[in-house]
Protein: TetR/AcrR family transcriptional regulator
Organism: Bosea eneae
Amino acid sequence: MKAEKAATPIRRASIGARRNPASQAAILAAARAVLAEDGYAGFSIDAVSRRAGAGKPTIYRWWKSRADLLMEVYAAEKARIRAVPTGDLGRDLTEHTKELWAFWWGTPSGRTFRALLAEAQSDPDALAALREKFLPERLLDVRGLFAAAAARGDIPTEEIEARLALYIGFNWFYVLTDQLEAGQAAIPVAMRLIAASSRS
């Protein structure tokens, strides 16, 4: 049985387009709670507004759409997962991917990722947010792994973007086909192939 929500949440003052840190934190906390309790299908700006005690105009001023807010919730949760180069690109990619898949499989915001990808295919605003903001920010760590490997001379610099695209494609195939659990054994094999030297 779901916990009852507060009947009279404290209304929080907005300071226009510039985000009030307290209001932002309250809205993101409310969004995480609504997502955990009601799932992606039950997630709405109305529900977040009621829970946070923030007006809908304030939320829409800071996040253009439901997808935009969900992407920020996802980003805040995923920020705990860091990809740090150790000198072995294949191993680094393998360990990072296993941790990422555990997040996608085991957390409400992680499980939302598949629905966000699907929504972006039919919503131009969600697609723009995914392509122009979400992906570049979320791929910084992984791009760093490839850049470090190139700096060591393990892979050519000019292949970083192609290998990154292969990495994304591998991950999204298992996300979109709901095979994260079944696909675990394929991670080390795929990462070795993606990290393999192409030098003769």
Notes: Residues 1-8 have pLDDT under 50 and may be disordered. DSSP finds ten helices and no strands in the chain. The radius of gyration is 19 Å.
